[in-house]
Amino acid sequence: PAQLQSDLLWAAYGVNREGGWRTAPSALNCQEIDVFVALPAGAYRYDAAAHALSLVAGSDLRGITGYQDFVDEAPLELVFVADHARMGMVPVSLRESYAAAAAGAIAQNVYLFCASNGLATVIRAWIDRAAIADALGLTHDQQVLLAQTVGYPEQE
């Protein structure tokens, strides 16, 4: 449902206090991570300041966000992308590790939200980063880090 999706995105990396501070940490407050949401109707970038989704692709990209069978059928897929252009204060040699730490914190927020709302989630690093980057129209400064599937627990 739309409200649950909205709450999930806010918990993941929404603005939670004045000054644009987020629910997950970012080294030097670079806020270098973009959260993309792959839904059946298309792919969107989460705009935390506006707490809104911006369409980036008008087709269902869930199938390219991972290799496992469940990816195609999950209600939504999250893709965490680092924008290294925002990390000017961070030495180039450290940017990827700093961004990966921030993405991990966001993923953990998603895990906690899912646990508290009866949802299932799994984070995945085994993904085709080049295909995802092409489908999302990313620039050379943007790096696909991780994907995270969110859905309902399998019924036994």
Written description of the protein model:
By secondary structure, the protein is of the alpha+beta class. 29% of the residues lie in helices and 30% in strands. The chain has three helices and eight strands. Strand 1 (15-17) and strand 2 (21-22) form a beta hairpin. Helix 1 packs across helix 2. It is globular, with a radius of gyration of 15 Å.
Q: What percentage of the residues does DSSP assign to strands (E)?
A: 25-35%
- What is the approximate shape? globular
Distance between the termini: 23 Å
The neighbouring-strand order within the major sheet is: 5-4-3-6-8-7
Total strands: the figure is 8
Helix content: 25-40%
Provide a count of the helices.
3
Radius of gyration: 15 Å
Largest sheet, described in full?
Answer: 6 strands, antiparallel
Indicate the mean pLDDT. Answer: 95
Following the backbone from N to C, one meets helices and strands in this order, namely HEEEEEEHEHE
Low-confidence stretches: none
Query: Structural class per helix/strand content?
Result: alpha+beta
Ordered list of secondary-structure elements with their pairings:
Elements: H1 2-13, E1 15-17, E2 21-22, E3 33-39, E4 42-47, E5 52-57, E6 76-83, H2 92-116, E7 120-124, H3 129-136, E8 142-151
Antiparallel strand pairs: 1-2, 3-4, 3-6, 4-5, 6-8, 7-8
